[in-house]
Amino acid sequence: MITIYSITSLILAYLLGSIPTAVWIGQAFYKVDVREYGSGNAGATNTFRVLGKKAGIPVMLIDILKGFTATNLAYLSILGMPSAVDSHSVVFTNYELALGITAVMGHLFPIFAGFRGGKGVATLFGMVLAVHLQAALLCVIVFIVILLLTKYVSLSSIVASFTYLIGVTFVFPVSVRSVVIYGMCICVLILVTHQKNIERLLHGRESKVNLFKKKVASV
Prior knowledge:
Elements (H helix, E strand, L loop, with lengths): L3 H14 L3 H10 L13 H8 L1 H20 L2 H6 L9 H19 L12 H11 L1 H18 L2 H19 L5 H17 L1 H8 L17
Helix pairs in contact: 1-4, 1-6, 2-4, 3-4, 4-6, 4-7, 6-7, 7-8, 8-9, 9-10
């Protein structure tokens, strides 16, 4: 059922996702548009690469918060039809997914930054946190392990995305089929948005990120 609450929350989800954290922080504190350097993406990974961890960490945390907050706007739907929707229903879960995906689209195509955004990994993770906490924590563990072993953020993101699908399918099996379908979509989206990274990985040209090394931006 479409209500004024559901329409409003979808619009808010897109606007939240559209907040170009990397662009605004880069321009406000470093006088740099991160999209003009590194990979050209307005995301946490490129911010780490271009401006270092002092800029990258806040960007990453805010982008995660964008996805988490947007997904939880689903609780507005309960205001519109409390008798038809509760936080444990299939309808509610599907609406959470719709809001989270809307926020991710906002991050990929932000209205506040000329529709030139990032790859949506951090915002996707915020969405996963809201939808399935256990699977999200499993993804974090796998992401950190792969990153420490390889120092490739892109590879860590790809492996973590498949970990989520495995998590909701086998480790923490869910009863709502759309959550599994969403996991499949995450894998496809990550592969599509990381095509150039995959090519560089295969040819040994992908940039590594050392979170423990102080970054001095030369831009």
